[in-house]
Amino acid sequence: MSMIEFSNEEKAIIVNKIKLYFRDELEQDIGQFEAEFLLDFFAEEIGTFFYNRGLYDAQAILEQRLESITDAIYELEKPTPFSR
């Protein structure tokens, strides 16, 4: 898997959220550099866990939809003397 990268706009939003979290929840002001450093750390060290969870969730949804499509196809099947 390649490194998780964000656009400049996404990165600015995420960094701002990190700064706000530190201010509001931890009562600490951190600068732009520190917030970007934290974002890079989480993207490198923890991002793959979130990425993989997203893949697992997508796979589960796909399996559910495929099962639903398979059921719909069986419902369309016409009876014949031939049995499988």
UniProtKB/TrEMBL annotation:
Q: What is this protein called?
A: DUF2164 domain-containing protein
The record, for InterPro entries, names:
DUF2164 (IPR018680)
User: Which species is the source of this protein?
Assistant: Gynuella sunshinyii YC6258
Print the organism lineage. Bacteria, Pseudomonadati, Pseudomonadota, Gammaproteobacteria, Oceanospirillales
